[in-house]
Automatic annotation (TrEMBL):
Single GO molecular function: dihydroorotate dehydrogenase activity
Species in which this protein is naturally found: Acetobacter malorum
Protein name, as recorded: Diguanylate cyclase
Pfam families: DHO_dh
Cellular component GO terms held in the UniProt record: cytoplasm
One GO term of the biological process aspect: 'de novo' pyrimidine nucleobase biosynthetic process
Cofactor: FMN
Pathway(s) this gene product operates in, as recorded in its UniProt entry: Pyrimidine metabolism; UMP biosynthesis via de novo pathway
Coiled coil (UniProt feature): none
Gene3D superfamilies: Aldolase class I (3.20.20.70)
Domain of life according to the entry: Bacteria
Key word Methyltransferase present: no
Residue ranges constituting the Dihydroorotate dehydrogenase catalytic domain according to the UniProt record: 25-218
Keywords, ordered alphabetically: Flavoprotein, FMN, Oxidoreductase, Pyrimidine biosynthesis
Amino acid sequence: VNGGFFPAVPQATVLDGRLSVLRRAAERAGVPVIASLNGCTQAGWVHFARKLEQAGAAAIELNFWHIAADPDETGTEVEERFIAILRAVKAEVSIPVSIKLPPFFSAPGNMAKRLVEAGAAGLVLFNRFYEPGLDLHPVAPEADAQLSTSYELRLPLIWTGLLSRRLQTSFAVSGGVNSGEDVVRCLLAGADVAMVTSALLRHGSGFLSTMLAEMQAWMEARSVESVAAFKGQLAAHGTAQAAETFLRDQYRRILSSTPAFGQ
């Protein structure tokens, strides 16, 4: 595609292969298959979104991964580009379109609100960046991807908890979901979906049964009969000011409970 995604990679060798995988999955999985798309240009996003729908995707996740490396590029320009891509894709497909966001906005809540207003059917918090390190032997950038840990779950939990009661959309948590108890945490914050990758890469797909058993054990220990009974229990209530005050109080509580800081 002229000016499209993954420039320098022959489309037939990568993109057509992924479409083939999607077709087989859509035919055999027995559940709706959501396709995730990352692109470079608006034309590329739109072109391949059409291809994903034609291949059987039940919905599309637009995976917004962008490094604003140009000092002359403003935050407003980045935000407007994301919204324009969402609108362009929605104009060309009939299936639901969700957005996977990076956490690096000056006002993530406002950006989430604008995307929902522009037609996003759901929000995925957050895109996990894979940052290269610096190797000293030899002196060169180091490509060393690390699987997520449960500690990384805290940032998406905060924002899911802040937004899930305020925005009329579905929320998915991504990054750091490594156990059944982590899934419970996502639900307590108000998420509708908990995305799991690293745990399955570590332990295999059978680990899903373990995670479900951990969730069930947590619920049975508290005599909770359904997810609906506790979903959103720890999501932010009241005004935005009340939520900010709560977070400030938690910040002080964390500092005072940490020996190195509380002395």
